[in-house]
Every structure is written in structure tokens, then in C-alpha cells.
TrEMBL record:
PROSITE patterns: VOC. The lineage of its organism: Bacteria, Pseudomonadati, Pseudomonadota, Betaproteobacteria, Burkholderiales. Residues 9-124, 142-260 form the VOC domain. This is Oxidoreductase.
Amino acid sequence: MSNTNLITHLRHVGFAMPQLEEQRAFYSKEWGLTEVAEKDGVHYFAAEGSPEPYVIRLRKDDKKRADVISFGTATRENVDALAKQLKQDGVQLIHEPRELSAPGGGYGVRLFDLDGRVVEVSADVAPREYRDLEPGESIPARLSHCVINSPNPQATVDWYEKCLGFQVVETLHIHGNTLMWFMRCSHPQHHVLAVGNGPHVAMHHVSFDMRGIDEFLRGVGRLQRDGKELIWGPGRHQTGDNAYGYFQDAAGNTVEYTAGMSQLGDSWTATEGDLSDPAVLDVWGTSNAWGENVMRSHFNTPDEGLFVAPPL
Ligand SMILES: [Fe+2]
């Protein structure tokens, strides 16, 4: 079967870390999410403008790791067909398709990707009641995309194409080296996943969509006034045409406020960007330089939970 268009969107990302209380305070009081539930030690955070029951989940653990990257698919039948196909292809499932017990429930399968990240694909998740954000409201409207680091980036990209049906829409190069692969799912949004060429397996960043450019800038400014270090930004990438401002959460994972990402039409073709042109990374020319500090933040520390299923 072809898995193209199997995945509809990014649902949520889970993190585990020793400093749970600092992390809860960061995502609710500073980043602007709403803590909506706690169950068996896992804390769930929703974005006010999103129907997803939660977009971030946090769990205390001695190890710093990404617990799960969760994607949506349209039907339960898709989940079953995907699980069957993955097993035939030798992918290690963490659990078979089953009813999910997290807020919103649903029906999903969990598996390890090529590098050992935990990936969930689910359908039938009950939507949360959400609202349109007000003009000027500088909190995340929804989850936009996430980027993962891999020391085996091409193989990881191939895996996501083959196993989950993502399609590469753009690559970024410098001096002949490919540094980033941007991937789309069935949604016209330019990318919901990207793979970075990194020194180790880790989360590169998780990105949150703001109501618009004004609210994006207000959010970046609000965090800076609160004393948070703006790692990189504010600027606008040529790739995806989205605005960017990168910060770090309480465990040192990079998180992004974004706005204005482009939508792909039916006749899109894959493109390439050359990073020797500074306008590729920073269209407006307003951002601080892309230097070692930015790279270190994006590389993150090695994920300590590879090929280990989280307890929940
Ligand atoms: Fe991003």
C-alpha cells in the first residue's frame, strides 16, 4: 500500500525530564499553553486555538528524552492497515492498535522509528472545545511542526517517506552538504516534520503557530521582557515562508513561535535552498546571526530514551 497522505497533522509531542515543575511553569506561565489534565504523573497542555485535546505532555524522569511524537490519521482502518504494513516491513511496534487512555482517547498504534524515537499514529481522538484567539493575544494557537535531529538523516528521511508517507518538499544545503529535509503530510501546510543533519538523535525543535505575525512578534517580545533568551530571531525563513523566534524550555529543548507558513498547491514540486545566501534563513534580515549558539541549541543533548518505551 502507498502511505502517501496517510498522516493528516502533528497532534502532540511528549517530553520527559528531571525538572518537571520548572517545565510545567514554563509551558503554562511563559509559553502560553493551558494545563488541562494530569493523569498517572503525566501532565497535558492544550493550545487555546486548537481542537487537539493536548499538544504537549510532560512527565518526570531521571532521563531527558522525547517520550512520543504523535501524528493524526483519518480513520481507525488507517491505523490497522498501517500497523499491518509496518510489521511486514520489520518495524518494531511498541503496542498494537488499541484504544488510547490519554485525554481525548482515540485509537492508535505506537512504534519505534529508525533511530528509536517513539512515534504514535492515531485516529478518532475527541476534539477539545477551542476558541479563536483575540487580536493581539500572544499565546500559541496550535502546534505547527517539529524537527528531529539524526546522525543518519537520509536514512531517517527515507524511513518517514516509506513507512509514514511523508514527502520531501525542500532541502537546505551548504557547501554540498544537506543540512535539513522538510516534509509534508496530507495537509497543504509546507511542512509538519523536518529532519536535521545532527550529531546525535534528539529533538531539534517543536514549533507553535501564533494567530498572525503581530501576535508572533508580541509573543517574542513578551518572553524577552520576561527575561527569556531569544536564541534566534525574530526573522522569517524562506523555506516555508514562516516567521521564527526560538527559545529554550526549562529542560533545554528548543521551542519556536511561528506564523505565516505557506501552503502548498496541488502542483507543488520539491525545491532546494542554498544556505550560503543569508536571505534563505532570514528573509527580512532582522534576525541575529545563525551561529554556534543557535546550532548548539538546535542540536540539543542526546535523547536518553531511544528504543525504550515510556511507561505511558
Ligand atoms: Fe521550525
